[in-house]
Amino acid sequence: KNEVEQSPQNLTAQEGEFITINCSYSVGISALHWLQQHPGGGIVSLFMLSSGKKKHGRLIATINIQEKHSSLHITASHPRDSAVYICAVIGAQKLVFGQGTRLTINP
Amino acid sequence: GAVVSQHPSWVICKSGTSVKIECRSLDFQATTMFWYRQFPKQSLMLMATSNEGSKATYEQGVEKDKFLINHASLTLSTLTVTSAHPEDSSFYICSASMGGQGANSPLHFGNGTRLTVT
Predict the structure, then answer these.
(1) Does A35 touch chain B (CB under 8 A)?
(2) Are B76 and B22 in contact, with CB atoms under 8 Å apart?
(3) Residues 56-85 (B) with a CB less than 8 A from some CB of A
(4) Which of A40, B36, B62, B81 lies at a C-alpha separation of 20 to 30 Å from A80?
(5) Listed residue (A39, A95, A41, A44) closest to A72, CA to CA
(6) Which residues on B lie below 8 Å from A50 (Cβ)?
(7) pLDDT tens digits in sequence order for chain B, 118 residues long
(8) Distance between terminal CA atoms of chain B?
């Protein structure tokens, strides 16, 4: 079993839908990152969080340390949100990545 | 915001040759740089962590003599793939942090280098 599990692996939705991507981890962590990777390969760091909730525009990230679970939400989704979303945790002094969630938003 | 420049963005080389990939932090000093490898439709795999002025720490299964990492300054790290083979063809990406390894610092990624070995 991977130390970081994301679900779903693939998600297709219509423009405007509310999107949720989940990340569960089994190790103790000091922080969790949500990353966005576009088709060309470039990666953007969306959030780094260690507790509670963060919001940036239409993106919201939450983390529950006790349950070892984080979610990334996208409100009013748009085709330009289509990308791979990756959860990464910092545990035992190193980064561990989830396998990614491929999101496709259709117009 | 913090910018990381990675060069080249793509490279094709022949088997047996060496390829150098550069990762530069343009507007901040990167205490730590990370090198990752990504196969198609798979997630990132950390290859090594480098701190300025010291030897890189390689992940299990990554050959240090094949993937040479140099972090000579706070703004530049290089990854050299030596004696490249077709199985080294992959997407290589770096990230830079102002904190040390494992520190809770934001990560800033380069745009990656697609290596094809023929």
Answers:
(1) yes
(2) yes
(3) none
(4) B36
(5) A44
(6) 104
(7) 678 999 999 999 999 999 999 999 998 888 889 999 998 888 889 999 888 878 899 999 999 999 999 988 889 999 999 999 999 999 999 998 886 555 567 788 999 999 999 9
(8) 37
